[in-house]
Amino acid sequence: MPWALPIIGHLHLLGQYEVPYQAFKVISKTHGSIFRLKLGVVPAIVVNGLENIKEVLFVKATDFDGRPNISRYNDLFSGNRENSLAFCNFSNLQKLRREILQVHTFPRNFSSRFLKLDSIINLEMNELKSKINKENCLTNFKIHLSSTIANVFFIYFCSKRFDTSLPKFQEMIQNYDSVFYEVNQGYASDFLPWLSYFQSKNHTRKLSQMSKAIRAFVMENLMNDRIVKYERNERNNNDEEDYVDSLLERVYNNRDKAKMDLNTALFSLEDIVGGHTAISNFIMKTLGFLVNHPNVQAKIQKEVDAITLISRDVTLADRKQMPYTEATILESIRMIASPIVPHVATQNSSIGGFEVKKDTMIFLNNYDLNMSPELWSEPENFQPERFINADGRIVKPEHFLPFSGGRRSCMGNKMVQLISFTTLASLFQSYDLKKLPGQQYKVPIGDLALPYNTFRFNFSPRNLRL
């Protein structure tokens, strides 16, 4: 264990770096690939190296499937982080929630859900491009993009589309964006709870109000009418089942051992439709990379032009024939290096022969897996080609684990890749992405979140010829 300071422990070591996870690799050179840290009042273990990380995620998954009990997560989820899909401990109820969700977030290729998602993305992308055509330097493009992706989610999961210009919709988008940004921040008070007394009560109160407003929007606009149908037994068996139906079937048919109540269903829906924020933030960061790499843009455009012959929209079916575009998405995921959510030991165990006590927080250093020069050639450079083999096919190294793995893997990872593919291919099919004077395009790494007001771009229409 490195030398610790009184009260704060090793927190000072993490504050010296742009991304705290960078410190883990430095410390490991002296203290080994697995070492203890005392972060304020929280005992923690840092795990470096692929084999050690795989032991946590796969080999001993049931020993390490808990989540940290951080008080602000409770504040964001109506006083109980167990309401969250990502920040709850694993349980039979969590297993049920994942099983219900998987059918929708991992649609089989060319299934009805896959084709439905495909048509929805294209519908919403054409709406976004119509806005860009009217104003190629949209003020706060991030909000326009978030609104577009949000409608993809609402139509796909809830069979409902919104007018994105409505004030209530815009408020909902901004609330989700603010909550997502908050979730992705790290604070000393997460490890020194008494510091929360010195933090702005207005900030905490505002975030709590945003969470409640999101909940009210979801209930009023997505759940209430459907609940009435179930309570009156008016649902037609021939109706196509969306995610709302999947949840309410469990609530009202009461057939599962891990009983799902209406409150759980509401939070599950609220959580998954909030996934639009993660995807829009990711796409914004990818555009932030690509505005600095016109050569990468040109290669995407060459690929999309060859597949669509400049005469039709991009479809999800094109994805396997556009490896460079897919590789660009993977390279952006790698460069952003968003950390795996920390795990917590649910029982006494061990990692790599290193003793781990129950309730210890586990940090998995996937930042090093993404950015180590020992694993990647020139890791600081944006090079989509690293994910394409000699045969022109996508290849993902074993050490590339951006969505974690095992029972706590990210449930939205396929949605991220599918929606990002069509969005980026569609934008570059129609536009060249250019810088605006006075704008800075340094992409923050280490998490997915961006501030509400962030990059602005010039979408310059391409002069396309058949």
Q: What is the fold's blueprint, element by element?
A:
Elements: H1 11-14, H2 21-31, E1 34-39, E2 42-47, H3 50-59, H4 71-76, H5 92-105, H6 112-134, H7 141-158, H8 167-183, H9 201-231, H10 243-253, H11 262-273, H12 275-290, H13 294-308, H14 323-336, E3 343-344, E4 349-351, E5 354-356, E6 361-364, H15 366-371, H16 413-430, E7 431-434, E8 458-461
Parallel strand pairs: 2-6
Antiparallel strand pairs: 1-2, 3-6, 4-5, 7-8
Tell me the major beta sheet: 4 strands, mixed
Order of strands across the main sheet: 1-2-6-3
Tertiary shape: globular
Count of the domains: 1
Number of β-strand runs:
8
Which bin fits the share of residues in helices?
A: 40-55%
CATH superfamily: Cytochrome P450
Radius of gyration: 23 Å
What would CATH call the class?
Answer: Mainly Alpha
Secondary-structure element series? HHEEHHHHHHHHHHHHEEEEHHEE
| Number of continuous helical runs | 16
Outline the low-pLDDT stretches. none
Beta-strand percent range: 5-15%
Mind telling me which CATH architecture this is?
Answer: Orthogonal Bundle
